[in-house]
Amino acid sequence: MKNEENIVMNVTADNGFSDLVADKAVGLTKSNNGKTMMEAMVISQERIASDIYSMWIDAEVIAKRCKPGQFVSLYTSDKSHLLPRPISICEVKENAIRIVYRVSGSGTKEFSKYMANRYVRLMGPLGNGFPLANEKKTAMLIGGGIGIPPMLYLAKSLPGSIKIVAGYRDEMFLDDSLAAWGSVYVATEDGKHGIKGTVIDAIKAHQLTADVIYACGPKPMLKAVCDYSLTMGIEGYISLEERMACGIGACLACVCKTDKKDSYTNVNNTRICKDGPVFPIGEVIL
Ligand SMILES: Cc1cc2nc3c(=O)[nH]c(=O)nc-3n(C[C@H](O)[C@H](O)[C@H](O)COP(=O)(O)OP(=O)(O)OC[C@H]3O[C@@H](n4cnc5c(N)ncnc54)[C@H](O)[C@@H]3O)c2cc1C
Ligand code: FES
């Protein structure tokens, strides 16, 4: 049996969703341990930049329960891909969630073709999410590439003053939406928009400071953010968007090294999908 099939069987048996994986009925919903597996209707979909798509999905149970930094796992209808694709929740409005994603392979390519009124199978909300400060702290939200979408939901949820540092390869997306919730500072690799360089270059160029840092993006960016935050003595949290398989803690495909022992394996590993994807800066070894 293929590895992917093995993982799916273990995961569904472990979490009581086995009947749903086999069931093709439209509109069904099943909740277990705070997660819901459902067939949800696509409300709208649009391309907002080259290869970047924004999709609103009618998923009331997930919308009512999720928090910034959590994600959903979307299933493709292609039988050769049994495992779902994790995508962060970018925004929530009443009964709907928004995801913003880059087409990077066959799964996201399939999602990009979905039109309004079709159904998509998804599970969520998954992961732990960002801890939200109750008091009004100055927060610096740092997003790189596909790590930018969860920062919009986070910016809308924080009570204090917000500085948003967004790093793009070249073309910008979500910058207008982010600007409604905080001051936005941009870095691009080619210097076409904002500072030429990395998010750290933008932070230094604008002499930005904050009480707390929240970051999501590629590993090299997160590593630089951790170094910066530890050097400056600023408390912070990073969200890892590593490759995943089951997305619910059952297959160990997403483990990374940490300074704490994992309750499941009793070694210094942590499952990004279940124990994360958000970790305090300094806890995981990047
Ligand atoms: C918690 C979490 C949240 C995420 N949120 C978002 C989001 O909001 N928007 C978004 O666009 N993407 C997000 N991703 C990444 C997204 O899951 C992958 O891009 C997607 O699974 C790729 O599936 P695919 O079938 O299109 O590509 P595949 O055929 O599986 O892979 C195509 C290419 O993409 C690369 N890739 C696959 N997974 C990842 C990954 N996790 N990170 C970086 N590169 C990857 C592969 O190495 C390969 O080069 C998130 C990932 C995680 C774990
Ligand atoms: S993806 Fe399976 S344990 Fe994390």
Give the arrangement of secondary structure elements:
Elements: H1 3-15, H2 18-22, E1 29-32, E2 35-49, E3 52-58, H3 60-65, E4 71-74, E5 85-88, E6 91-93, E7 96-102, H4 106-112, E8 119-126, E9 139-144, H5 149-157, E10 162-168, H6 175-179, E11 183-188, E12 195-196, H7 199-205, E13 212-217, H8 219-232, E14 235-240, E15 255-257, E16 269-271, H9 272-275, E17 278-280
Parallel strand pairs: 9-10, 9-13, 10-11, 11-12, 13-14
Antiparallel strand pairs: 1-2, 2-3, 2-8, 3-7, 4-5, 4-8, 6-7, 14-17, 15-16
Structural class: alpha/beta
The set of bound ligands, ions and cofactors reads: flavin-adenine dinucleotide, FE2/S2 (inorganic) cluster
Helix content: 10-25%
Bin the strand percentage. Answer: 25-35%
Fourth-level CATH superfamily of the largest domain: Translation factors
Poorly predicted sequence stretches spanning 5 or more consecutive residues: 5-27
Number of strands: 17
CATH class of the largest domain, please? Mainly Beta
General shape = globular
Number of domains: 2
Describe this structure in words.
- It is a single chain.
- The chain has two domains: 3-126, Translation factors (Elongation Factor Tu (Ef-tu), domain 3), CATH 2.40.30; 130-241, Nucleotide-binding domain of ferredoxin-NADP reductase (FNR) module (Rossmann fold, 3-Layer(aba) Sandwich), CATH 3.40.50.
- The longest helix has 14 residues, at 219-232.
- Mean pLDDT is 88; it is low at 5-27.
- The strands form three sheets. Strands 1, 2, 3, 4, 5, 6, 7 and 8 form an eight-stranded antiparallel sheet that branches. It has a seven-stranded mixed sheet with strand order 12-11-10-9-13-14-17, with helices on both faces.
- The protein is globular, with a radius of gyration of 19 Å.
- It is 24% helix and 33% strand.
- It contains nine helices and 17 strands.
- With 286 residues, it is an alpha/beta fold.
- The structure holds flavin-adenine dinucleotide (FAD) and FE2/S2 (inorganic) cluster.
